[in-house]
Design brief:
Elements: E1 2-8, H1 16-29, E2 34-40, H2 52-55, E3 59-60, E4 66-67, H3 70-78, E5 87-89, H4 90-103, H5 113-129, E6 142-147, H6 157-170, E7 175-182, H7 195-206, E8 213-218, H8 224-234, E9 241-245, H9 252-259, H10 262-269, H11 282-292, E10 297-304, H12 314-326, E11 330-337, H13 343-348, H14 350-362, E12 365-368, H15 377-389, E13 394-397, H16 399-411, E14 419-420, E15 430-434, E16 448-456, H17 462-466, E17 472-479, E18 481-483, H18 488-493, E19 497-501, E20 508-512, E21 519-522, H19 537-547, H20 564-567, E22 593-595
Parallel strand pairs: 1-6, 1-7, 2-5, 2-6, 7-8, 8-9, 10-11, 10-12, 11-22, 12-13, 13-21, 14-15
Antiparallel strand pairs: 3-4, 15-18, 16-17, 16-19, 19-20, 20-21
Helix pairs in contact: 1-3, 1-9, 4-5, 5-6, 12-19, 15-16
């Protein structure tokens, strides 16, 4: 087994995850099988109880693991199915070591960070690296490891020590270290400054790790004299110093690495040049170039709670992007803070209220993603009502599905106090209830998690056709509440159709509003299994309805093409969009143009 370690220096948020994923893509293009591990030095056992404001979205795996969003990047870029053990945290390591100590496995020895914690880290890496995650038998050829945080953080010191020991343990030719660092450009002098990277590398070497490659984040390509200076002070060959400058979308990053011959430096370090093939990026290049040339756009209103932090909905954004590419459209996301749609905001901040409704009404489609808590719920209900009554394509995910049911119960059934017991435990008309098997005392890992099977109970429904007329689908879940089964007959008599249910037939999974061009709610999270070139069928349906396309390329793995016969014919006017670059609110490259209710324009001024 060969190992590639990706570390970061100077500041966080440089794009280590995208860099690690892109290195994996590069190695796959050279003919190697790849697996990935993400190390998060925080004490949490997993990401499940963390706020999106802390670390962005919680990504859910097939086995129910609640993990860092970078594992979503790995799965999307490399088309893998990872396990919860592919995400290592300080909490998991300490939990494992303490459990061994309680069993007496250490035979009375004093348990210490070195060697017991560091040994546990190394053993975990070696064990997980052997698990096949690409659908083939046997272990992968290369394991790409990303160390979260920044070199110098106190919390990551045990991992740094363990990885230093690990590099010695596996020996030369089996370990390659790529250090991602920042080369800022000061506006005052316009010069690329190398000192932050020099200090970062010096600190890394002082901790026992020596980088084989430097991946330098900068706004533009590094000058040759800057590379020579970094080479001299960091003891890294200039041919192994890469520039990761700003590009139109993140699909360019693997190509950027290839063009700078990063694969040759990595393969040389790992003694793999004799068995590697020339990198084959034919399909990757085609997708990248096609997206860059799109002129027509499709606008989707994202009605949520964390609209100032796009990473909170990263997988949703990626799934929308995959679907928009399949429909040959440039994606424009209008961020609509749910609270701003509510009547109270019209009194407190009339401009924000007016702007939010303008964005909602100007969109070609509306999406209400998952979430927790009652903030903004009324605004989401109003968005679902607007979509239902005005024939605007609508997709509700997890809470979004429950919102659609609450709105229908209030507006159509006349149950004006209908609610979820999550928001009003004493409601007289609970149309969404706490699942009986859930825990009300422990939060971590107690939801209905991971891949679950949904059976289609209505063959002639949009959802089943989007999935290729299959009898069932396996999708990933993350929820504590469900639609009240006692209310189903009443809801269906009034016009809703629960077309997908679990294996018992009592838990609602997919709801549709027949007669509407596209109004679908899913209890599961289809965004977690969307891939470039293989978009999620439900997202593909939403974008298709929003574009009013007669036929779009079928999602790989599904046999039915989407036609007007499936989706109906809703035709909102598409608005022109001539942007040629992008940057999300947190400056991460994601290929999505976004606008906000603050000024109604793209955040980078290109819309």
């Amino acid at each position: 087994m060969k190992y590639v370690l990706v570390t970061g220096g100077v500041v966080s948020g440089l794009g280590k995850g995208v860099t690690a994923s892109s290195i994996g893509v590069l190695l796959q293009a050279c003919g190697f099988r790849v697996t990935s591990i993400k190390i998060d030095p925080y004490l949490n056992t997993d990401a499940g109880t963390m706020s999106p404001f802390e670390h962005g979205e919680v990504f859910v795996l097939d086995d129910g693991g609640e993990v860092d969003l970078d594992l979503g990047n790995y799965e999307r870029f490399l088309d893998l199915k990872l396990t919860r053990d592919n995400n290592i945290t300080t909490g998991k390591i300490y939990q494992s070591v303490i459990a061994k100590e309680r069993r007496g496995d250490y035979l009375g020895k004093t348990v210490q960070v070195v060697p017991h914690i560091t040994d546990a880290i190394q053993e975990w890496i070696e064990r997980v690296a052997q698990i096949p995650v690409d659908g083939k038998e046997g272990p992968a050829d290369v394991c790409v490891i990303e160390l979260g945080g920044t070199i110098g953080d106190i919390e990551s010191m045990p991992f740094i020590e363990a990885l230093g020991q690990f590099s010695y343990r596996v020996g030369p030719g089996n370990f390659c270290l790529v250090h991602v660092s920042l080369v800022p450009v000061l506006n005052v002098v316009g010069e690329q400054k190398t000192k932050p990277t020099q200090h970062s590398v010096r600190q890394l070497r002082g901790l026992g790790l020596t980088p084989n490659l430097l991946a330098c984040r900068s706004s533009k390509e590094l000058d040759d004299n800057v590379k020579e200076k970094l080479s001299q002070f960091c003891h890294v060959p200039s041919s192994s110093i890469l520039t990761l400058y700003d590009v139109p979308n993140i699909w360019h990053i693997p190509l950027l690495l290839r063009d700078q011959k990063a694969h040759e430096a990595i393969l040389k370090t790992l003694n793999l040049r004799g068995v590697a093939t020339e990198p084959n990026f034919k399909e990757w290049i085609a997708t990248t170039k096609v997206y860059d040339k799109f002129n027509e756009s499709v606008r989707i209103a994202m009605v949520g709670k964390y609209t100032n932090l796009s990473d909170a909905y990263l997988s949703v954004l990626k799934a929308l992007l995959h679907a928009s590419v399949a429909c040959n459209r440039k994606l424009v996301v209008d961020w609509v803070p749910a609270e701003n749609l509510e009547d109270d905001t019209s009194k407190e901040d009339p401009d924000a209220h007016k702007s939010a409704w303008a964005l909602l009404k100007g969109a070609n489609g509306i999406l209400v993603p998952g979430g927790f808590g009652d903030r903004g719920v009324q605004g989401k209900i109003l968005a679902a009502k607007y979509a239902r009554e005005n024939s605007v394509p609508f997709l509700g995910i997890c809470l979004g599905m429950q919102i659609a049911v609450i709105e229908f119960s209030r507006s159509v059934l006349g149950l004006h106090d209908a609610n979820s017991t999550e928001f009003d435990p004493k409601t007289k008309n609970p149309c969404v209830i706490f699942m009986p098997e859930g825990s009300k005392t422990h939060m971590g890992g107690t939801m209905r998690l991971g891949s679950r099977r949904t059976y289609f109970h209505v063959a002639d429904c949009k959802s089943a056709k989007l999935y290729g007329n299959v009898q069932f689908v396996d999708e990933r879940h993350r929820h504590r509440y469900e639609v009240n089964p006692d209310l189903i007959s009443q809801l269906e008599s009034a016009g809703l159709s629960f077309v997908g249910k679990d294996e018992t037939g009592k838990r609602m999974e997919i709801v549709e509003f027949p007669g509407h061009p596209f109004f679908i709610g899913a209890q599961f999270h289809p965004e977690f299994k969307s891939r470039p070139g293989k978009p999620s069928p439900l997202f593909l349906g939403l974008i298709t309805a929003a574009c009013d396309k007669a036929v779009v390329p079928a999602s790989k793995g599904y046999t039915t093409k989407i036609t007007k016969g499936i989706l109906g014919s809703h035709s909102p006017m598409l608005k022109a969009h001539n942007g040629n670059g992008f940057k999300s609110p947190n400056s991460s490259l994601n290929g999505v143009y976004t606008s906000t209710t603050a000024n109604g324009v793209c955040v980078d001024g290109s819309c």
